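Consider the tokenized backbone below.
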């Protein structure tokens, strides 16, 4: 490895490799540094029955798109891994795997030093441009009071969950109802485990509506292409957890009320706990109502789109609750309920402490516009809402990566031609 490389891309997932694809097309010398392997996050941090929640046709990367037999279906974890592995040989990126970047330090005003910890020990390179593609928020969140709970209760984060058999016998408490929490709760429920679910404030969406996948309708309506500053609801909408739904078994709604009818125990927001006692806020009824209201609101938006264009489609409908709690449970005695495991599915937080640059807000999030920061030479890619709702998803990665790469090419060599679109 040279001691100086014009561009270092830090993170070898689909976002970083997409930037690499465009840099390669422009003839820009660079390396992509990956702490594990290119498909590590998909192969090793998804549960066995994981499926995409976005239709397969959303899966588009530079020079490469899903072309299988089921564009409206949902790839499983292993199918996603195979699909990504098929992309890499099409352009052979300069990928340095099993090497972690432990420090990114500015040298003067026009250069960075990148400290690498790899198979040959600690080394370093310098670069003119550094692209951070390490994912949105890499540190799993577990509440502080988790350490005060009964040590006999097995606790894991959602990224450590793979299947029901890895857990001790007994009931399971899943905390959080984002996409991972609801799908893991369903996975356990379908396996016959008694599930207790602490419900957060995530909204939900219909899987299919009026003859098509809702995400296909939303794409046609331009929701995934609307710039963040123009998106309805502004910053508040962007801070919300993604809508829960599943692609399992061909795709279906996730209806927590239906789960309750079938025996799942639902609670409001988990606030604290000690030993075998957990306490919950009285938020369950409101959370269920608001999730259903979002579900129906999205259906109404689709109705208006259909009507405005005169599209022929099946008749509209609305979700009607199949269950409602008599009261919001205030406590759960883990021992009395036979709960032997807790799965924390309450998200992640940013960790950019290894980057020595003034590019972050008070919450540790990058301050960027379409990935470009005010720090010369420092950019990001693969962040949620980096440019649109589609950013961070397969559907938006190509466009975001091209923009960042084009910016880099322009800085490095004003005489280079603009990058051509991949597809």
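A designed sequence for it:
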């Amino acid at each position: 490895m040279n001691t100086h490389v014009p561009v270092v891309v830090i993170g070898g997932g689909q976002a970083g490799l997409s930037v690499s694809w465009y840099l390669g097309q422009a003839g820009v010398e660079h390396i992509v540094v990956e702490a594990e392997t290119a498909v590590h996050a998909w192969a090793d941090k998804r549960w066995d029955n994981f499926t995409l929640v976005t239709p397969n046709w959303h899966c588009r990367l530079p020079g490469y798109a899903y072309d299988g037999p089921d564009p409206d279906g949902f790839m499983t974890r292993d199918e996603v891994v195979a699909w990504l592995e098929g992309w890499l040989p099409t352009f052979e990126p300069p990928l340095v795997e099993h090497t972690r970047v432990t420090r990114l330090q500015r040298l003067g005003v026009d250069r960075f030093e990148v400290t690498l910890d790899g198979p040959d020990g600690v080394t370093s390179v310098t670069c003119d441009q550094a692209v951070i593609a390490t994912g949105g928020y890499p540190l799993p969140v577990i509440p502080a009071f988790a350490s005060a709970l009964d040590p006999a209760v097995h606790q894991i984060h959602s990224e450590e969950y793979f299947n029901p058999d890895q857990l001790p016998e007994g009931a399971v408490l899943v905390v959080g109802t984002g996409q991972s929490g609801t799908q893991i709760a369903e996975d356990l429920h379908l396996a016959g485990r008694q599930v207790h679910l602490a419900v957060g404030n995530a909204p939900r969406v219909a899987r299919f509506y009026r003859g098509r996948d809702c995400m296909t309708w939303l794409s046609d309506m331009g929701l995934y292409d609307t710039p963040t500053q123009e998106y309805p609801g502004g910053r508040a909408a962007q801070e919300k957890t993604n809508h829960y739904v599943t692609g399992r078994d061909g795709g279906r709604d996730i209806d927590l009320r239906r789960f309750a009818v079938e025996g799942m125990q639902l609670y409001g927001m988990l606030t604290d706990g000690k030993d075998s006692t957990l306490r919950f806020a009285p938020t369950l009824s409101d959370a269920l109502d608001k999730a259903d209201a979002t579900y129906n609101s999205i259906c109404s938006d689709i109705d208006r789109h259909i009507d405005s264009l005169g599209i022929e489609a099946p008749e509209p409908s609305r979700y009607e609750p199949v269950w409602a709690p008599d009261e919001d449970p205030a406590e759960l005695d883990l021992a009395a309920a036979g709960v032997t495991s807790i799965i924390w599915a309450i998200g992640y937080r940013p960790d950019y402490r290894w980057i020595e640059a003034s590019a972050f807000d008070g919450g540790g999030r990058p301050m960027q516009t379409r990935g470009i920061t005010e720090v010369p030479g420092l950019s990001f890619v693969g962040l949620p809402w980096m440019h649109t709702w589609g950013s961070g998803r397969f559907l938006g990665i190509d466009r975001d990566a091209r923009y960042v790469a084009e910016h880099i090419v322009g800085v490095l060599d004003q005489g280079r031609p603009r990058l051509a679109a991949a597809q």
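The radius of gyration is 23 Å.
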